[in-house]
Amino acid sequence: MPLDIAHSVCPHDCPSTCTLEVERLDARTIGRVHGGRKDGYTAGVVCAKVARYAERQHHPERLGQPLRRIGPKGVGLASFEPIGWDEALDVVAKEFRAAALRHGPETVWPYFYAGTMGHVQRDGIERLRHVMKYSRQFGSICVALSDAGWNAGVGVKRGVDSREIAKSDLVVVWGGNPVSTQVNLMAHIQRARKQRGAKLVVVDTYRTPTAEVADLAVILKPGTDAALACAMMHVAFKEDFADRAYMARYTDVPDELEAHVRDKTPAWAAEITGIPEETIWEFARLYGATKRAFIRVGYGFSRSRNGAAQIHAVTCLPAVTGAWQHEGGGALYAGGALYNLKKTVIMGLDAVDPTVRELDMSRIGGVLTGDADALGGGPPVTAMLIQNTNPMVVAPDLMKVHRGFARDDLFVCVHEQFMTETAAMADIVLPATTFLEHDDIYTASGHTVLQIAQKVVEPFAEARENHFVVTELARRLGAEHPGFAMTPWQLIERTLADTGLPPAGHFLDGRGHDCALAFETMHFLDGFGHQDGKFHFKADWSGLGPDGARLSPLPDQNWVIDRETAAKPFRLVTAPARSFLNSTFGETPGSRQREGSPRVLIHADDLAALAVEDGARLRLGNEQGSVVVPAKAFDGIRRGVVVVEGIWPNHAFEEGIGINALTSAEPGLPAGGAVFHDTAIWIRPAA
Ligand SMILES: Nc1nc2c(c(=O)[nH]1)N[C@H]1C(S)=C(S)[C@@H](COP(=O)(O)OP(=O)(O)OC[C@H]3O[C@@H](n4cnc5c(=O)[nH]c(N)nc54)[C@H](O)[C@@H]3O)O[C@H]1N2
Ligand SMILES: Nc1nc2c(c(=O)[nH]1)N[C@H]1C(S)=C(S)[C@@H](COP(=O)(O)OP(=O)(O)OC[C@H]3O[C@@H](n4cnc5c(=O)[nH]c(N)nc54)[C@H](O)[C@@H]3O)O[C@H]1N2
Ligand code: SF4
Ligand SMILES: [Mo]
Question: 41: CA distance to ligand 3 center in Å?
């Protein structure tokens, strides 16, 4: 019998948003998952963790019933008893009403992130929030810094089509690790290398799997990328790689920039970055001499207090050489502005009250432990609904987050697919569908295709979609909005119509709808996103955020990072693991097996200086706390820099607290954002 292949879309928080072909074995069961072949971006390639999605979909630990906690927090299933959906939702509505009566509606904080990237299921919680005037959420944990940095120069959140990599002669992967985090991008890069001899350069803080396969791996100290970019501009001006005609037409202050980088020599940058001076010359000349040079701007190097300034400095490079104007040249970070979905009905944007306080999701530790500044001077948070995120593991300043969730006077409802560590702290846990069990619409940050996926199999047990939870709570709370009366499919249709896009039926052939704009526009030949149509070398940081005055307007090394000191001589990077997706897939046996257990990558000379052997247990710490992890000697890293890959479950660490115990919740500049790769620490042999 021929296999029944259903079309779907990967919902995970990954730039690729792959088109999927799912083997449907029966109405409840899937087999292998393959990359969609009809779509030119996915082109048949998906990551290993989604190829074996059946492991997650049919996992014996999937949540199948609503649960009420009857035992201590943090224990897991043993602390819960099953209850019915109606009863569970009644409890949540009653608690929310009681909390609001006591402290006002701002005491309720719906909290969500991008566990699913589907617009209907991910963002519907916003409609409930806005209609009820519950505290707003500043979604800072991932893209706040990179958005600010990109917009400072380019002025609009889109870039060159990633499919043009096929026409590139040089691909620079800067501060990203696509072999682990965006595998099909590598397929495009490898094709360009094979077919036209394109070169690959990777700029990272350690020799990642992507750096491993590069022609040139540029390994620097975290938070020093702007110095490297400045030296490359210095070389471009000095050796006549700068395209002055292009700059005169398309950029704001080329002469000021040229004067500004005159003393920013490769020798100067070598001192700051730790990169050998000759490597900087080599990279600068290769980049300067290649017109079809494509920079994939990763998220990784934005996760630093100076991260926005780092991104901005790198986007200046193609503006100096004029690479933006060539096919296969320019840069791409993300493409949200290509789609411009009109989401008023999904998100209840017509009900937003700007006087309601907005809480920074990355500062959830401070918020839940009563930090007056984090609370914006308002009432305490005493009730939460959490969907699509796992803050007990992924949030910075994690010890505070744990203390906050342990509070007796905090009511928490978590809607989840698994008993995550966050769900284990909840009073009510509701079972959630996976993307294979509901309908949604997906944009992508790494490509240009808008896609719709219909459910492939029936929901597991009593699992219900996010939209169901939001509308049922709205009914119980008396929240009124047209979006609550619509089905997910109607919301999709309505959003398409409001945006001026073709109806949903047009999307269901596994190809989606390509929102790429004309070549001229994708390459900004008809102007950049700013009012004056120019690329801005001179960033208006103060226009982008309240802390802008602390950043230099022209690209420069901004020393606002958590620099190493005599007491804390190491810099910690907490990069993603290939077989996990943030904290997701920590539950699947295939991923666990591949990742093994947490460890810290450290230079052998640093191990020798600590007088310990490879494999020794090390204690890593700072003023926030400490964790114990085994060492792994690694020569693909600078002395004084260490990497712990993966957002592991807390219990994977000896003392039951994960790596985010060390990362800071201090907002990055100029407008906030989490600084996961910007941490000074001490390291000692563990007792
Ligand atoms: N397998 C897997 N895939 C994922 C994820 C995952 O956890 N696992 N997470 C998903 C999510 S939510 C996102 S946002 C994306 C993120 O994907 P990426 O764009 O790849 O960004 P990061 O994962 O934060 O970090 C990437 C690299 O940045 C490097 N880095 C850190 N600091 C600096 C610096 O100062 N300078 C430079 N040059 N490099 C630096 C790190 O060493 C790391 O190798 O990936 C998504 N895809
Ligand atoms: N140390 C360190 N920490 C980091 C990072 C780092 O690089 N280093 N990266 C940060 C980044 S970039 C990000 S984006 C965050 C992400 O962190 P999270 O937002 O927590 O992302 P996930 O771990 O993917 O968790 C998503 C959860 O959503 C659930 N889920 C998935 N689909 C649905 C659904 O349809 N409905 C419901 N109700 N639930 C669903 C999944 O089961 C999963 O438990 O982590 C951040 N934390
Ligand atoms: S590469 Fe990213 S989008 Fe593609 S299947 Fe894997 S997690 Fe999903
Ligand atoms: Mo992210």
Answer: 12
